[in-house]
Please model this.
Amino acid sequence: MPALLNPFKAALAERSPQIGLWLGLANPVSAELCAHAGFDWLLVDGEHAPNDIPNILAQVQAIGSRSHVIVRPPIGQTHLIKQILDLGVQTILVPMIETAAQAAEMARAMLYPPQGVRGVGAALARASAYGTTPDYLISANAQTCLLLQIESVAGLAALDEIAATDGVDGVFIGPSDLAADMGLLGKAGAPQVQAVVETALIRIQAAGKAAGILTADRALARRYLDLGATFVAVGTDVGLLSGATHGLRRDFAASPDLAGPTGY
Model:
C-alpha cells in the first residue's frame, strides 16, 4: 500500500483553483469547526500563530480528510520540515524565501534520499500510519508538495530562478511583508504594491508553477483568481471570529433597550 495521494498537488498540476482559509487560533476545536465549512485547504500557521509541533498535530488530526492541510513553519529549516512531514502533512508552505539556493534546500528537505535529505524514520511516524503503510518510503516523495513564499524585494528579484527550481510546486506571494519591504508598512493594498503583486502572479505562472496568495478582500481574491492564481486563501479564522463578534456587539449596542447584561 503506497502513501496517500495528495489531491491538492494534483489540483495544482491541473491548474484547478483551490480556495483556502488561514488558521491562526492554534486550537483543534476551531480547526475542526472550520474543516466542516468545505474549504479545499486549510493552512495551520506556525509562523505568526502560537503553534508548536504537538499543537499542529492536534489540528491536523481534528481536520482529518475534510480539507487538505497545509502547514507553514516559522522558518525554512530542514529539521522542522522533517517533523511536519512525519505528522502526515504532505504540503508545506515555507516563508521568507529569497534565493534559488534556499528553494533548492527546501526542495531537498521534502524528499527521501537519494533525491533529498529527509530523515528515514517513518516506522515511528503518523505519516506511514505508524509503520503500517508498507510502501510509504518508496511512494512518499511523489506526494509531497512544496510551496515557497516570496515576500521581499530580494525574493521578487530572484522569482524566476526560485520558480524554476526542481521540486517546487507553487509560489505564494506575501503582500504584507512585501509592502513593508517596499517602504509601505501596513499598506498592502497600495496601488504600487498591488501592481508588483499582480506582475509576480503572472511571472509564477509563466514559469509553469502554481501561484498563490492570501487576502480577506473578496473582490481582490476574485481579481487574483481571474489573473490565474491557483491557491487563494480568502480569509482567516481570527478575522472571521473578530469580525463576527464585533459586528454582533455593534448590532445590539445600537438598541438601548437591549443593552446591558442578560442571563439565560
Residues 35 and 173 are 24 Å apart (CA to CA). The two ends are 54 Å apart (CA to CA).
